[in-house]
Amino acid sequence: MNTRTVWAAAAAVVALAVVPACSSDDSAATTTTSDTTTNATTTTTTTNATTTTAAAAAATAADLQPQLDVFFDPTSTVDAKAAVVENGADLTAVLEQFNGVLAGYPLTATVGDVTGVDADTVTATTDVAGPHGGAPMDLTFTDVDGTWVLATDSTCSILEMGHLSC
Question: The pTM is what?
Answer without folding.
Answer: 0.66
